[in-house]
């Protein structure tokens, strides 16, 4: 009989939002409802009245704007993850995408939920007035899209070897999209009205430093992987206000982070948030496709009726319930050692990093 696999929670970010996401589970699961009410009250204290429009599954451009999408994504991620922890599951690791990394850090104990909401509210305020823009999903690798990038239109996310997101101001992004389509690339606009993970947001993002510097930061209680510096998050990184402040302007390297996470063990990957975008990415990973690791979603791919959402959640939770308890996070000095040196060296050989201010890939060891 196959031994139970450790559980890893994945937290989606900008672009995963959908009208009515999680509403069915809210009506069907008292524990989730309690956690969602808790976090929505924290947002209300900062002037974000999200509940009515969320429960009504309101649509429109504002649903993808930062004042709606970012708070609700954080809230759904945190509340779903918290409900899983409340059920007694102790994950072996947490990994978030974009704003999902803040939710993961909060669940790991780095930030108090009230402080996280305050930080997110401040981030949203600082981004107000930045140039309109967006993100473009392209079925290609970073090297393939490099000729279409500029100082402002950059690779904003690497989700898989041939799945990237371009990010930038609207005019430049539209030009890149037209050229990519003309050259035969498959493209799709992500649900974003801002150029998240583009250097055009750097100045605005840095304005969040004063508040970040004042917020208490704790050692992670659970192993926390970062998609900005792929690998286990160290306490030194977590204590650096610039690490968090610059996240809206830095590329998300979810694919390389997932490679590192899966490099040495098979796990059950459970997407704790709206949709199953990260689940779909994970299922294409060789470690999952070959039947070693598994990937499940705690919410359905599309919002559904309360009974259907509860059934999806319960099925996924049942797969996690037998998972062995994950270890506590390693001390800061030892966190990187959670991934062996040979594995990390092998992955770093093929990993690209993105030079700030350009879309050009450079070797991983380049400074």
What does this 3D model show about the protein?
- This protein is α/β, with parallel strands linked by helices and 367 residues long.
- Helices cover 42% and strands 14% of the residues.
- The protein folds into 2 domains: 7-129 and 203-354, Malonyl-Coenzyme A Acyl Carrier Protein, domain 2; 133-198, Alpha-Beta Plaits.
- Strand 11 and strand 12 (361-363) form a beta hairpin.
- Helix 4 packs antiparallel against helix 6 (113-127).
- The longest helix is centred in the first third of the chain and has 21 residues, at 66-86.
- It is globular and about 50 Å long.
- The relative contact order is 0.17.
Short description:
By secondary structure, the protein is α/β, with parallel strands linked by helices. It is built from 17 helices and 12 strands.
Summarize the SSE layout with pairings.
Elements: E1 7-11, H1 23-28, H2 30-44, H3 51-55, H4 66-86, E2 93-96, H5 99-107, H6 113-127, E3 133-138, H7 142-145, E4 154-160, E5 163-169, H8 170-182, E6 187-189, H9 202-206, H10 209-214, E7 224-226, E8 231-232, H11 235-238, H12 241-245, H13 254-262, E9 268-271, H14 277-283, H15 286-289, E10 294-297, H16 306-321, H17 341-350, E11 352-354, E12 361-363
Parallel strand pairs: 1-2, 1-9, 2-7, 9-10
Antiparallel strand pairs: 3-5, 3-6, 4-5, 7-8, 11-12
Helix pairs in contact: 2-4, 4-5, 4-6
């Amino acid at each position: 009989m196959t031994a139970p696999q450790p559980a890893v929670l994945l937290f989606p970010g900008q672009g995963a939002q959908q009208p009515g996401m999680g509403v069915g589970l809210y009506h069907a699961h008292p524990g989730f409802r309690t956690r969602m009410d808790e976090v929505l009250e924290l947002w209300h204290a900062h002037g974000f009245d999200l509940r009515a429009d969320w429960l009504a599954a309101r649509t429109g451009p504002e649903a993808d704007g930062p004042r709606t999408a970012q708070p609700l994504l954080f809230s759904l991620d945190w509340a779903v993850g918290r409900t899983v922890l409340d059920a007694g599951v102790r994950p072996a690791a947490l990994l978030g995408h974009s704003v999902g990394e803040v939710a993961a850090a909060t669940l790991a104990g780095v930030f108090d939920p009230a402080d996280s909401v305050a930080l997110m509210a401040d981030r949203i305020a600082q981004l107000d007035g930045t140039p309109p823009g967006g993100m473009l999903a392209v079925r290609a690798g970073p090297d393939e899209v490099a000729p279409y990038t500029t100082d402002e239109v950059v690779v904003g996310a690497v989700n898989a070897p041939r799945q990237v997101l371009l990010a930038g101001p609207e005019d430049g992004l539209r030009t890149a999209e037209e050229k990519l389509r003309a050259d035969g690339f498959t493209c799709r606009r992500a649900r974003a009205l801002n150029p998240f993970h583009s250097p055009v947001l750097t100045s605005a993002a840095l304005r969040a430093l004063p508040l970040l510097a004042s917020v208490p930061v704790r050692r992670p209680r659970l192993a926390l992987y970062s998609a900005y510096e792929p690998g286990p998050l160290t306490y030194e990184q977590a204590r650096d206000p610039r690490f968090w402040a610059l996240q809206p302007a830095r590329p998300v390297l979810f694919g390389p982070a997932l490679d590192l996470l899966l490099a040495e063990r098979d796990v059950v990957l459970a997407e704790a948030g709206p949709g199953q975008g990260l689940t779909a990415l994970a299922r294409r990973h060789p470690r999952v496709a070959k039947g070693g690791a598994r990937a499940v979603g705690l919410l359905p791919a599309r919002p559904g009726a309360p009974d259907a959402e509860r059934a999806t959640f319960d099925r996924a939770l049942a797969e996690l319930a037998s998972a062995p308890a994950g270890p506590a996070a390693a001390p800061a000095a030892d966190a990187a050692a959670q991934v062996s040196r040979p594995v990390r060296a092998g992955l770093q050989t093929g990993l690209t990093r993105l030079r700030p201010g350009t879309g050009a890939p450079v070797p991983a060891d380049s400074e």
